[in-house]
Amino acid sequence: MVMNYVFSDKISGLKPSAIREILKATADPSIIAFAAGNPAPDAFPVEEIKKISMDILEKNPIAALQYGATEGYTPLRDAVKKRLASQGSFSDRDELIITSGGQQASELSCKIFLNEGDTLICESPSFIGCLNAFRSYNAHLAGVEMDDEGISLEGLEEAVKNNKNCKLLYIIPNFQNPSGRCMSAARRKAVYEFACRHDLIIIEDNPYGELRFAGEDIPSVKSLDTEGRVIYAGSFSKVVSPGMRVGFIAAAPEIISKIVVCKQVSDVHSNILAQMICHRILTEYDFEAHIANLKSIYKRKYTIMADGIKKYFSSKVTVTEPQGGLFIWGTLPEGSDMIDFCQKAIARKVAVVPGTAFLTDENAKTTSFRMNFSTPTDEQLTEGCKILGQLTKELYGE
Amino acid sequence: MVMNYVFSDKISGLKPSAIREILKATADPSIIAFAAGNPAPDAFPVEEIKKISMDILEKNPIAALQYGATEGYTPLRDAVKKRLASQGSFSDRDELIITSGGQQASELSCKIFLNEGDTLICESPSFIGCLNAFRSYNAHLAGVEMDDEGISLEGLEEAVKNNKNCKLLYIIPNFQNPSGRCMSAARRKAVYEFACRHDLIIIEDNPYGELRFAGEDIPSVKSLDTEGRVIYAGSFSKVVSPGMRVGFIAAAPEIISKIVVCKQVSDVHSNILAQMICHRILTEYDFEAHIANLKSIYKRKYTIMADGIKKYFSSKVTVTEPQGGLFIWGTLPEGSDMIDFCQKAIARKVAVVPGTAFLTDENAKTTSFRMNFSTPTDEQLTEGCKILGQLTKELYGE
User: Fold this and answer.
1) Does the distance separating the beta carbons of B270 and A1 come in below 8 Å?
2) CB atoms < 10 A from the CB of B60, how many?
3) Of A268, A276, A278, which to mutate for an interface test with B (greatest number of B Cβ within 10 Å)?
4) Is A245 in a helix, a strand, or coil?
5) Which of A146, A248, B53, B113 has the lowest tally of Cβ within 10 angstroms?
6) Residues from chain A contacting residue B9 (CB–CB below 8 Å)
7) CB of B221 within 8 A of CB of B192?
8) Whether pTM exceeds 0.90
9) Across the interface, do A258 and B10 touch by the CB < 8 Å criterion?
10) Among residues of chain A, what percentage have pLDDT more than 70?
């Protein structure tokens, strides 16, 4: 009587994101959430969104409520093209589509290029949401280690040698999730040349690029692209609001036209009111001042966490020192039991994400874990570092 | 220098929806759009949406702007469960997820069940958006003819006999798109029993069910489901706003949990503000009165078009007589050139959709075409019928 469901091969092994499961556990408000990736609540342009929404629903409600074009709301597309062009990430040869967040950008890019079993190369660790999107199309994931300059060139060469049908290379050059690392300009150039040599399409995922609070901007890989092989994915999630689900893809028109037909069958188009709001925030307000404000918020929060780590953590624990984004990547001494550490931390009411969640092989070993400094309050940042630090000293000495 | 893009097998043959391409052509405001499927502009609860939006952004902006749960906004899920339960389409054994429109409901249902090459059986003609979604996973589509009571039982038996790995059955029982037909209660029962016998999962797509303007409601196939094999997809697109992209799936929890992981990697979650708006329209306003108003709008518009057809069309052209929904399906005399008719119609500034767009085999022949009565103004409905009628008389006699 009860059915025996037979699901498709591609999704049978797919598990809910470990992070989102951890987040559910941390709905408990007494837990300090170093495990999340939410923008700081004071980073949302609430007043602007309120004013703009009112104005749209007053003057132009039908346009906001009726069906729209799959490609996206034209004035928003134009505004994003202009901004990307000013950053070197959009050329006259490119096209642009609005997506339902950056997640959909990577998911559709995978869908249009990969047959089941084809190989996608990526940084390891990398963003679990996109890794799972690739897994949901039965992509074979080849993870490549990083150093401080980004994905390893030797590792890339090994990956194309050891894996069949390598077609895509997924990278997060700016303030990578989870490592916080930023790929150097030289490495970007070398990675692009590698992709040309091996005829790979690059998905350059850049959700955090606007959030640089130290150092100098580095040109995107897209800005180096003379052959039309870079799919540049961006998002309003970290600079306006993730709840709106507005992202975008800039790429060659041949790629965008395939993305359009795939998005059409996926969700027809993205929420229109949200697109209209993003358009007006981008064009009618001082967007640069808004970004400057975000940077100062995240710089403050990063500094509190970095200072807390310096002050309270065992010297045996190493951490990355990001110049932007939302994450710090911590690494326990070799041979230590990272899962045990994360469980002890949550027992003391601080949640971090086990590094295994970000590996292409989730059964591989790592002693690393991810900490987020955008979600907790300033007080929680210090308090959480104190608790985690005490734990590291108990486990690994001063 | 210019790349030769090699796209995935599953999407290489995918074309933009013929309808959306036609709609682009009809952006010309001088064209009478019988080809669209948009809700009537006066059907939107604009004042309510404005008031609710303001209130949310005033009192609870962070909840509307921050990340949310993939399953959807809990109060909306609860309200939809309650409404579906009152209609017999949600039981204690079911679960529910909010999707980005009804389109995503069908797309994800296909993704979790079908391997490439597996067969999906559907009515022919059927909704092109979902047919293309199924095609984008390399589903083999087996179209089955309909009679006035719905999909043919003999045709279904033939389909499982002649096609391999039949796993899904996609149906639109209420005011089917494009035919406008409604499946009888007896046929629903027989179709459900057929699915049980052949171990098929049914996707019951019901975007138009609330829009019955004549006759009596017929219980959903979901209401007959004792085995957990019906995926019920609904949407707010036709009753609140399509631009918001809010739909839902009610199904067995085993199915919903797979849909959740697939939605998580697709767009994380649906736009939160839109979910909050739908929740409050459903719970704080007189939703029944709103639906009654929609029914009276569509009854009026249908009657104008039906009267126009009766008055102006050649008697050689037959049409369906829907009791709800948005569409009338017209059929030209046997042997006539339907594409030529559609082209002549657009030359006279009336757009209809060629019936071939809705066939599982787009190269098959049909003399049918789709007309929509929700998008045009009342005046355009009469004027369009006059123009089309004149054309039919010129081509096929009185």
Assistant:
1) no
2) 11
3) A268
4) coil
5) A146
6) 115
7) yes
8) yes
9) no
10) 97
Q: What mean pLDDT do residues A241-251 have?
A: 98
State the average pLDDT over residues B86-93. 97
B270 to A245: CB separation less than 8 angstroms, yes or no: yes
d(CA B64, CA A336): 41
Q: CA-to-CA distance for B359 and B128, rounded, in angstroms?
A: 8
Percent of chain B with pLDDT over 70: 97
From the CA of B149, how many Å to the nearest CA of chain A?
Answer: 28
Instruction: For residues A241 and A255, give the distance between their C-alpha atoms in angstroms, rounded to a whole number.
Output: 27
Structure tokens at B252: 């067995």
| Rounded-to-integer distance, Cα A307 and Cα A284, Å | 38
pLDDT digits (tens, 9 = 90+) for A121-137: 999 999 999 999 999 99
Nearest to A129 by CA among A247, A213, A224, A212: A247
- How many residues does this entry show for chain A? 398
CA distance B38 to B35: 9
Identify the pLDDT of residue B214: 98
Angle subtended by helix axes B272-284 and A272-284, to nearest 10? 130
Is the previous residue joined to B376 through a cis bond, with omega within 30 degrees of 0?
A: no
Mean pLDDT value of segment A3-16? 89
Q: Strands A119-123 and A140-144, how do they pair?
A: parallel
DSSP reduced 3-state for B215: coil
Q: Give every strand in the sheet of A353-354, ordered side by side.
A: A318-319, A327-331, A368-372, A353-354
Position B362 scores a pLDDT of 76
B53 contact A CB<8A: yes
- Average pLDDT (A372-397) is 97
Which residue of chain A is at minimal alpha-carbon distance from B245? A271
Provide the 3-class DSSP secondary structure of residue A306.
helix
Q: Which of A239, A371, A254, A244 is nearest to A313 (CA)?
A: A371
Is the separation of the CB atoms in B382 and B302 below 8 Å?
no
Q: Answer whether residue B85 shows pLDDT above 90.
A: yes
Q: Rounded to an integer, what distance in angstroms lies between the CA atom of residue A368 and that of residue A364?
A: 12
Q: How far is A393 from chain B (nearest CA, A)?
A: 34
Overall average pLDDT of the A61-90 stretch: 97
pLDDT band with cut points at 50, 70 and 90 for residue A388: very high
With H, G, I as helix, E, B as strand and everything else as coil, classify residue A251. Answer: strand
Give the span between the Cα atoms of B186 and A224, in whole angstroms: 63
pLDDT of residue B70: 95
Residue A2 sits at the chain B interface (C-beta within 8 Å): yes
Res. B25: pLDDT tops 70? no
